[in-house]
Amino acid sequence: MIAIDGALVVADGQVRTGTVLVANRKIAALAWTDPDRAALRTQAADIVDGNGHYLMPGLIDGHAHAYGSLLRGTENSLPLELWALHTTLHGRATDGPALHSAIMLGAAERIRAGITGAVDHAPNFALAQTSLAAHEASGLRAAFAPFLHDLSDYDLMDLPIAPDLYALVGGPPPVDADRYTSDFAALVQQARAGSGRVEIQLGPNAPQRCSPASWALWRALRDRHDVAVHTHLLETRAQRSLNRLYPGGLVAAMARNGMLEGRLTCAHGVWLAQAEMEILARHNVTVSHNPASNLMLGSGVLNFCACQSCGLRLAIGNDSTNTGGRTDIFANMRLAMMLPRRAEPDFAQWPKADAVFAAATEGGAAALGLAGKLGRIAPGQLADLVLVQANHAATLAAPPSLDVLVQHAGPEHVRSVMVDGAWVMRDGVIIAFDEAEMLHGAAIQAKLLRDRVADQLLVLMAAFPAMSAQFARDSNSNP
Ligand SMILES: [Zn+2]
């Protein structure tokens, strides 16, 4: 048993000095009074001094594409539909070693940022074994959600792609349902035989990118394996225009077809109407809010206040590193807190620190498929815990509070990180894996990947002006 003693424990929205006992991967007990704390210390084989630190539940990255960690420095000044040409091209050129490096690079960044778990919404099912092995090796908690899709937004939007470019980034191949079914079953079985930190989810890329047959497969596999589901939803204005393909709109169609349920997380939701938020809330769906990514791609801003007022559960994500920028959930919490204030004159509606912190922890747990089991410091919860400096020049405050933690802390203040009851970083040193060796390998893989796509980028650049002009015309004519 491990006792973390003397830290400012963030529990139930309050910050109090206490002692937290960890045993068998879970939080076993909390104590606040001197005698109770002393009693917990006597039970522990290992007592960790938490003085001068906040002890908070691990932050959860509620929407990520792990392969993107190797794509830093690629295109990030275009709207999603055009940006995705670059990203898809790099994604399809990502081989097993590159993917392994990307996942481990992202894991090191997350650990250092106090992020203990992430949803990896993954485009390449064929490399699922590589992903699973890397997530296991990372020491972090992960939900691995391989894409399911058989339609392309470019086709749905009548956005013509030159044939040579279409061959590189165009529509996905048809889904072989039998093969997908058996591969998915094997993956679920394999993950469930592992550490318990890595769960498999279904990852339909987006509802409009799935044919009716793929919606049926999504429902069938979800129910057969009792897995959570992660999908993109209404991220951009152009996607909103595709609502015309579904009577009553996409969300209403999902409700009619039994796609909405409590283990579904939808990323973005920027273009949800209030009535659609209410439908999602009624079905206990989680929406993963990605403010930095949505700003970078010019997608818009989720109406956080409207989500709150209809009781829709939110998580917070950073999305792919080549759009969300540095994987920093502290920064995303602050964006989530501040962005609604520019458009909402009723300041009583403005989200506060406790709301965005709950989204980044308890909401994130729901996105991981672990609603109610993770995301709080309370007996029985999974022990994913982070020690954050409270006496740093940027964080010292009297009195210390959750407001201070959310408003002032960042990755640079994260000192020690525990996942599933085991330390993955102590005093600023990652112990889950050899970070220096990982960085060396990732640098090599990033360079190899960039070399592999050099010629393909020329194809993209040749086709780009015409596509870009067409997209701009369509955007201007969209309501
Ligand atoms: Zn995404």
Write a structural description:
- The protein is α/β, with parallel strands linked by helices.
- 43% of the residues lie in helices and 20% in strands.
- The chain has 2 domains: 2-57 and 378-430, Urease, subunit C, domain 1, CATH 2.30.40.10; 60-367, Metal-dependent hydrolases (TIM Barrel, Alpha-Beta Barrel).
- Strands 1, 2, 3, 4, 5, 15, 16, 17 and 18 form a 9-stranded mixed β-sheet that branches.
- Helix 7 (177-192) runs parallel beside helix 8 and helix 15 (329-338) crosses helix 16 (353-367).
- The radius of gyration is 22 Å and the shape is globular.
- The model has no long low-confidence stretch (mean pLDDT 96).
- Zinc ion binds at residues 63, 65, 121, 232, 267, 319.
Could you outline the blueprint of secondary structure elements for this entry?
Elements: E1 2-11, E2 14-23, E3 26-31, H1 34-43, E4 46-49, E5 53-57, E6 59-64, H2 80-92, H3 96-112, E7 115-122, H4 128-138, E8 141-148, H5 153-156, H6 163-169, H7 177-192, E9 198-200, E10 203-204, H8 212-225, E11 229-233, H9 237-241, H10 250-256, E12 264-268, H11 274-282, E13 286-289, H12 291-296, H13 304-309, E14 313-316, H14 321-324, H15 329-338, H16 353-367, E15 385-389, H17 402-408, E16 414-419, E17 422-426, E18 429-430, H18 435-477
Parallel strand pairs: 1-4, 1-5, 6-7, 7-8, 8-9, 8-10, 11-12, 12-13, 13-14
Antiparallel strand pairs: 1-2, 2-3, 5-15, 15-16, 16-17, 17-18
Bound molecules: zinc ion.
